[in-house]
Model the fold of this input.
Amino acid sequence: MKSKLFHLWCLIATGGLFAIVTFIIGFILYRGVPTLSLSLFFGDTPAYLGIFGLSPIWDGIWPACLGTLSVVLGALIIALLPGIATGIWLAINKRSPFHTLLSLSIDILAGIPSVLMGLFGFTLILLMRQTLFPSANNSLLLSALCLAMLIIPYLAAATRSALQALPSSLTICALELGMSQWQTLWHVLLPEAGKGIKAGVMLATGRAAEDTAVIMLTGAVASVGLPGGIFERYEALPFTIFYYSAQYQSDIELQMAFGAALTLLCITATLFAMVDKVQRPRLNNTQIKSTL
Done:
């Protein structure tokens, strides 16, 4: 009876979560799909001129789309290597005071509010202005750096959990077959833990794409055009959604907020699909023998 009740409770919880997610996505689609048009992205500017930056775009979200992609990709480029490497180190090394301290720090950083990371970036710029770089200013690079620091704990925790969930027999068998520690990690453990690591990358991508507090304090503005460089201010979809939904003066601006929200949802889904397709293939028996 207890097992049946627990199973029923799990079904109800899963069904409720699915219903809530379906309602939210359905509402965004209901309000956002009618707004999809070239004017949403480029305003009164011809599309071919706006895409290549030959003419400024002031009434469309195309600059915000490029800004979002730029800052998310920049954050991933900065965070992937240290995040995954930290997770690998935590998973394969024995317990020690430093290991415990680092693991605790990762867990604390994973729960830190994003606004604190934004304040860190803002304070960093003020400090740089007073010391070595008087002309330092908020920029796309600063936003990417702060977002990278925000998502590194997610990457490290996901990598650590994925590797620790593997059976110890994999490591033992690989070492008995003559593989070195590095070959065991690279050819056996990481491919087997690939799904868990990809889940962490997807979580980090979504976290970076939707964050508003960090980019608002470190470089995002309402209207600046296409990103001019990594040291320039930029537009981003999360801030655009916040700006139009909080300060809209007409129904058109409110509809632009829903259109921007649907666009951000599509961009995030596309990035998730790209991450899902990137996985190191597992070795077959012939490849293992050639490695040995």
Observations:
- The domain at 60-291 is CATH 1.10.3720.10 (MetI-like fold).
- The CA atoms of residues 81 and 91 lie 15 Å apart.
